[in-house]
Amino acid sequence: MEYRLIDETSTDEVARLAVCLTNEIIERTGVKHFDVDLPLAMALCDEFVRQGQYSVIAAFDGATIVGFGALCECRSLYAEGSFGTIQEFYVLPDYRSRNIGKALLGEIIAFAKRKGWKRLELCTPPVPEFDRTVAFYQANGFEITGGYKMKYAIG
């Protein structure tokens, strides 16, 4: 398995996996949390990577991406500076429970350290449907900080 930062040549494959992630969340919760639009996801992923707004570290099995973590840089007073947000994190089901997610998180943490970020934050999918996901992050050093993920749709 190889882990590396992707460039614009891999954005379509990452977008497909991001759509797999959103579809899995919808299927497991029975709630349509997202509007799934593959062509839009592909265009946005390409745009964000090209503009340097989105850093994606992927796990490659040969030439195939089997997992990825997408990061954005944020700033806040409470974090005392810059930090990273893991916007999406996904490993294909056939590749789970093989330490690929753990290794991918290790690469993401190393990337965050090189960027000088103070911390990494993420939001998990809903529980109890994704209790295993929460346990995975906790086993890899993340801690629950409380609260809820909320949104306000504009326009």
From TrEMBL:
Signal peptide: none annotated. CDD domains: NAT_SF (cd04301). One of its GO terms (molecular function) is acyltransferase activity, transferring groups other than amino-acyl groups. It comes from the Bacteria. Residues 1-155 form the N-acetyltransferase domain. Gene3D superfamilies: 3.40.630.30. This is GNAT family N-acetyltransferase. It comes from Denitromonas iodatirespirans.
